Amino acid sequence: MLKYFNANQSFKDNETLTLTLSNNMIVTLLKLPTGAIKGSNNWNDEDFVHGASHARLKLEAWERLEPSVNSTAKAHGKQIGYVRVSTVTQNTDRQLEGIALDKVFREYCSAKTVSRPVWEQCLDHVREGDTLHIHSLDRVCRSGAGDAVAIVDKLNSLGVSIVFHKEGLTFSGAMTAAQKGVLGILASVAQMERELINERRIEGIEAARAKGKTFGRPKTVKVTKEDVERLVASGLSKIQVAKELGIGRATLYRLLET
Fold first, then answer.
1. Cβ count near 246 (within 10 Å)
2. Cβ(160)–Cβ(128) under 8 Å?
3. Per-domain residue ranges for the chain?
4. Half-sphere exposure of residue 177: CA atoms within 13 angstroms, side-chain side
5. Which of 12, 40, 61 is CA-nearest to residue 170?
6. DSSP, residue by residue, the chain
């Protein structure tokens, strides 16, 4: 199956690729900035970092493996995706684009929202052997390092692998101290970026207000009976008066009757 695997073609549109081999092993591949390929599978803790030709040879070797008793459940696990955007008008398609998934959970809420019912549904849905795919750490982590480590620990304890595609991180089984450290650092950076974006947004609004710009719905100018009578006296029809003042005809007649 992998004899004709072409790394350049496979990674044409995405830096991350998920393959299901003929023996049902699920492999996650990440194209590194150096051009090398990092691979990991859902059967064991083995991974590799090779150039394209050696990566293909490694994949062919993995494809020849037989499922062990411990890996059988994992081999038949589902590929689950979770995506989150802040508003319903935002597009979720760019997250996990090109990843073959059995089910996708889509949530529409801001990063600071405490209640995330779809995320809770996703956590209740995943089972041992499943792999949960998430675009980036900031999609699920609200409070930085501690939150990220707790999420990964919980999922791994259930036998669920988790992949953060933007960061190129895959976690299967108990994390080492080094993995927790790297995860914590990246989660903290993601939190910092989110807070910086919010700070810049607030600073931009304050700067615009200082220049006299207003936000929100424009204030409505109150139309009086005198305004209506003045325009009627000028020779305009009632329809023209209503249009000139930006009011409906019913409002115009009500003002004239007061």
1. 10
2. yes
3. 1-74, 77-217, 225-257
4. 0
5. 40
6. --TT--HHHHTSS-SEEEEE-TTS-EEEEEE-TTS-EEEEESSSS-EEEE-HHHHHHHHHHHHTPPPPTTTHHHHT--EEEEEEESSTTS--TTTTTT---SEEEEEE--TT-S--HHHHHHHHH--TT-EEEES-GGGT-SSTHHHHHHHHHHHHHTT-EEEETTTTEEE-SSPPHHHHHHHHHHHHHHHHHHHHHHHHHHHHHHHHHHTT---SSPPPPPP-HHHHHHHHHTT--HHHHHHHHT--HHHHHHHHH-
Q: For the segment 99-128, what is each residue's pLDDT rounded down to a tens digit? A: 888 899 988 877 666 678 899 999 999 998
Say if pTM beats, i.e. exceeds, 0.70: no
Q: Which CATH class for the 77-217 domain?
A: alpha beta
Enter the tokens of residue 222.
Answer: 């109150």
pLDDT, mean of residues 45-72 = 77
With beta carbons less than 8 A apart as the criterion, state whether 105 and 83 touch.
Answer: yes
Active-site option among 68, 71, 86, 110: 86
Give helix 238-245 / helix 225-233 axis angle, nearest 10°.
Answer: 130
22 is catalytic: no
In the block, residue with structure tokens 């600073």: 203
Tens-place pLDDT, residues 211-257:
777 666 555 668 888 888 888 888 888 888 888 888 888 888 888 88
